Amino acid sequence: MTQVIELTQVSKVYNGGAAQTALDGISMSVASGEFVAVMGPSGSGKSTLLNMVAGLDRPTSGRVCVGGRDLTGLSEGELAKFRRTHVGIVFQFFHLLNDLTVLDNVLVAAELAGIKRSAARQQATALLARLEIADKADVYPAELSGGQRQRVAIARALVNRPPLLLADEPTGALDSRSGDQIMELIAAINASGQTVVLVTHDAKLAARHAQRVISMSDGRIVDDAVLEPAAGTRSLLTFQREEARR
Amino acid sequence: MTAVWRKTLASLRRRRLQAVIIGLVVLLAAGTATLALTLLFGSTNAYDQAFAQQRGAHVLQEFTGGATTVQLAHTARAPGVTAAAGPWRTDNITVEPARVPPDERQMVADFGPPKLGLEVVGRASPAGPADDLRLVAGHWLRSGNQIVLTRSFALAQSLAVGETLNAVVGSRRVPLIIAGEVIDVDEMDAANQSPQHAWVLPATLPRLIGPGDQPGYEMAYRFRHAATNAALRADLVPIKALLPAGALGFTRSYIDVRNNYNITSALVLTFLLAFSVFALGAAALIVANIVTGAVLAGFRDIGIMKAIGFTPGQVVQMLVLQMLVPALIACVVGIPLGLLLSRPLVTQSADALGLPPPAALSLPAVLLVIAGVVTVVAVSAALPAWRAGRLSPVRAIVSGTAPQGRKAVGLARALDRLHLPPTVRLGAGQAFARPLRAGFTAVAVLVGVATVTFAVGLRTTLMHGLNDPAFNGGDYQIEVSRLMQYPDARLMHTLRAQPQTQAIVARDWASVQVNGISQPVQSVFTRGDATKLGLRALQGRWYAAPGEAVAPEAFMKEAHLRVGDYFTGSINGRRLRFHLVGMMFDTAEFGRILYMDFSTLHRAMPGEVPADYLVRLRPRSDPTAYAIRVNRTSRADLTVNIQNNTASSVIATVNDVVLVLALVLAVIAAAAVFNTVLLNTRERVRDTAVLKAVGMAPRQAILMVATSAAILGLIGGILGIPAGVVLHGVILQLMANLVGNTISPLQYQAFSAPLLLGLVIAGMLVAVLGALLPARWAAYTGVAEVLHAE
Ligand SMILES: Nc1ncnc2c1ncn2[C@@H]1O[C@H](COP(=O)(O)OP(=O)(O)O)[C@@H](O)[C@H]1O
Ligand SMILES: [Mg+2]
Where is mean pLDDT largest: A221-225, B168-172, B187-191? Predict the structure, then answer.
């Protein structure tokens, strides 16, 4: 299996007053088609890790390769071009552009990737239909519920059919019902062949959908477990029992 | 209050750049406003003060020889007269300074001694019930061979107390020693009124009357009702009734003198006031913009502030204070600066009246400026702040940003159809996403482009006016005055004999009594084709036959005449019918003047001959050589002046002031543009980060921001051009009106298409340049950093 993501000894130190080590020599890889959940307490470096993979931030040291390309050497412009076609990103707080309609929010990403407007429009409309928000195409984000906004964000992330989908706590700002729906969606996307890296601090979600769970703490990977589908179910049950006993 | 202060100071510290921009703009606005108001109060006060101290005459009235002193003395008891002085005997004489300054020896050798005209008044005492003369050098007259001059005349001719002037009386010279210099509040300065008054003892005056002179009398009156020239005209009616017909000669109104004294200030003031209003407006724009921006950007903050107990009033207070603090600091610097700059102008006018320089600080001006700045800043900050203060805290916290207005759907569709690159389309969309903010940017550019258009146009027009003979009194190089001893025919022969002579126009003055107007109108009569000197009518045509006349607007207004109208009147008691065939431009007597052909004067005064000759030379002639040759024919009886058509000092001052102020406003406008674009970009830094996250390259981000700024700059620029052109027309008209004239827009010729196009592009470039810095910053700030901070 080809490795979509390969991190080698990646460290990230923020220098704001007291130096803050967000990532501390992380090495790991993700294979094509995998569904990886990254877990850990708040401040453990999950988002920082995801930003490295997305090329949104640069490591202080180490190497980040995505889709066979070394991101460390790329310029800002090259990174932007890389993101257009290689990764789709979904954020906890949606980060939609409030001045644009739902459809335009999705179209922007397609157009930046150089897709012709008419083709992009078709693609975006189809995607919105698949995500069941086609009726909101001409509405502004301010009028949508959180779950609907996140669907738009997902549509925007998927419109260029990137091989890699990165999601940073996509359900963190949603109620549990909307959260479940979003997770079903992401699982379906993975099932259709796209590699997914999902950051969450929700163990239930990780266990239910991911094939592999990476646990982080203080900028380090403390556990990296591959779940057999069956074992996954079992461990979830075990987990729930343990929860109940406490 | 402490909580409000703490938050205010913290916000100011965090937004230093904005505080600096507000400070800078308010500083410039406050400085200009102070300059304007100090001038306004200072100059008017200086004259009024001197007028009160010296019991200035509301009217200085001249009388022809027809009235007797007894009759004239009676007029002091005419109804409405509160005080009168005189009658004094007067005569117009010519004098030659005895002393020749070393640097003028050659001139005197070539031209003979200069001949200066004076209107001498026989007067025993400088004091009296009206028109006191204030001695500022030497002493009052003590003997028959002394003369007292106005300080203005002495300064202009570099004459000093103790020097001798030789009065030209026929072929004799009567020496007069300068005893003193006085300030006379009832006449204009030497640059604007000639001849100037001069005083000798009553017994001396008859010795100065030469053959052919027409001595007369003069009286000074103060009236109960003297607020307007119309009131003064009414005041003169009962006086006229006490005297034989035709006795009333030239009238000098204190209002004209005061206007003349204030004219430089008045012209400069027109701009200064317009500019300070502009500058304050720009400051208001910037403040409103910054507060709107602060409200939009700090929406969540405001929600949280309210959640922890700030009242809406306190939120407003805080935002207003945030703007007032830098504005007040700017006043502390700007007001003294304005006072300092006003100093030379104010002292110069005080000096002309021999007054002690006025106090450096005009309290009403300063208070008015502070009140203006505080009001403008507070109101423009309070309006958007009030909206924020009333906001529901929950909504503010949850939504995190201000509610969005829907952008025009039609516009979006139109942009869709244009097949623009996505960055350009996004930029265009952004330009209109916040209509208020878009308006601010466009208006800032508009103000800048309008001011520069106006200033460039005004300079062009003024330079044009200075070079156009129709506006500067005619294109001639030589002016010759002759004494009685040198007859008209001989002088004409002399002038015609010179091969360099191209055109000769002889001039004479007389007053015309126009029916319907109580006071006589000073009129110019020309012999020879005046249009050969470049004089022309701005409306209608130049006169070509006896009885035809042209006049500036002030006369036409006073007489309720339009071009084409007929009117009646008299010259020297002889009734005549006139035809107003054109309107001209002439600032003499504030436009209360008539121009006619000499043949018209001849009908009333058959023996009259011109005294004054204007000569236009052929191209490339040497005026000095010409003047020397003409003068050689009789040094004693001719005065030959070489006309140097340099810019008058008023126009030069106005030109400089306009340039400086236009630059100031252009800087303010650029600051306003920079500021709105900066705020726009800051506000959008999250959006830009999101776009970068989905694949927008930094270069594209810059292009997007620049497009947005360029569109607004273009709109502002396109609207600014007509605004500037209209402003130019209005101010120019205002200026012309101040000197009793009108200028039709056709005369402007100030704007060329390439110039206007250039200005539009310049406005757009300022907007784009203002955008580039924050755009670069937004484009290269890390996405993770921005979104993490959210
Ligand atoms: N842009 C940044 N500037 C400074 N410190 C940061 C920045 N981003 C993250 N950090 C710090 O790095 C650590 C890891 O943060 P993050 O990756 O966001 O954690 P997580 O997503 O696991 O909650 C935190 O201590 C956080 O404060
Ligand atoms: Mg995180």
Answer: A221-225
Residues B654 and B634 in one domain: no
Residue B529 has pLDDT above 80, yes or no: yes
ipTM above 0.90, yes or no: no
Mutate to test the pocket of ligand 1, among A20, A53, A199, A202 (most ligand atoms within 8 A of CB): A20
Residues B621 and B672 placed together within one structural domain of the fold: no
C-alpha–C-alpha distance, residues B516 and B519, integer Å: 9
Q: Residue A220 belongs to a domain with what CATH number?
A: 3.40.50.300
Nearest atom in ligand 1 to A51's CA: 17
Q: Which helix or strand (DSSP H or E) is residue B688 part of?
A: helix B685-693
DSSP string, B519-568: S-EEEEEEES-GGGGT---SEE----STTEEEE-HHHHHHTT--TT-EEE
More confident residue, A215 or B189: A215
* Phi and psi at residue B751, to the nearest 5°: -120, 135
Range of the domain at B756: 404-471+647-790
Residue with CA closest to ligand 1 atom 18: A47
Give yes or no: residues B562 and B655 share one domain.
no
CA-nearest residue, atom 17 of ligand 1: A45
Q: Residue B691: its chain A contacts at CB < 8 A? A: 97, 108, 112
* B2 touching A (Cβ < 8 Å): no
Ligand nearest to the CA of A169: 2
Considering B338, B368, B392, which residue would you say is the last residue of a domain? B392
B399 has a chain A CB within 8 A of its CB: yes
Report the Cα A241 to chain-centroid distance in Å: 29
Could you tell me the distance, in angstroms and rounded to a whole number, from the CA of residue A45 to the centre of ligand 2? 7
Mean pLDDT (chain B, rounded): 80
Structure tokens at B112: 């003979």
Counting ligand 1 atoms within 8 A of each CB, the residue from A47, A52, A221 with the most, and so the one to mutate, is A47
Torsion sign (Cα): B287, B724, B472, B477: positive
The answer on B621 and B485 residing in a single domain is yes
Q: Are residues B488 and B635 in the same domain?
A: yes
Percent of chain B past pLDDT 90, that is, above it, reads 12
**pLDDT, greater one: B42 or B550:** B550
pLDDT top residue among B386 and B390 = B386
Q: pLDDT tens digits for B451-471?
A: 888 888 877 887 777 677 777
| B717: in domain | yes
> Mind telling me how many Å the CA of A230 is from chain B's nearest CA?
36
| Domain stop point among B392, B421, B441 | B392
Q: Give whichever of A216-225, B74-83, B642-651 has the largest mean pLDDT.
A: A216-225
- A172 burial type by CB count under 10 A (0-12 exposed, 13-18 middle, 19+ buried): middle
Residue A66's Cα: distance from chain center in Å? Answer: 14
B785–chain A Cβ distance below 8 A for any pair: yes
B765 and B662, same structural domain?
yes
Between these two residues, B403 and B65, which has the higher pLDDT value? B65
**Chain B residues closer than 8 Å to A84 by CB:** 694-695
- C-alpha distances (whole Å) from B450 to each of A244, B309, B722, B723 are 75, 46, 8, 6
Ligand 2 ion: nearby residues, β-carbon < 5 Å: A 47
Pair (B481, B626) in one structural domain: yes
Average pLDDT estimate for A205-220: 90
Judge whether residue B353 has pLDDT over 70.
Answer: no
pLDDT for the residue numbered A230: 46
Q: How many domains does chain A have?
A: 1
Domain count, chain B: 4
CA atoms within 13 A on the CB side of B412: 14
Q: Domain span at residue A92?
A: 3-245
Task: Indicate if B489 and B463 belong to the same structural domain.
Answer: no
A83 touches B at CB < 8 Å: yes
Among A117-126, A227-236, B306-315, whose mean pLDDT is lowest?
A: A227-236
Helix spans in B186-253 (H): 205-208, 229-241
Which pLDDT value is given to residue B268? 66
Are the Cβ atoms of B694 and A84 closer than 8 angstroms?
yes
At residue B647 the predicted structure's pLDDT band, cuts being 50, 70 and 90, is: very low
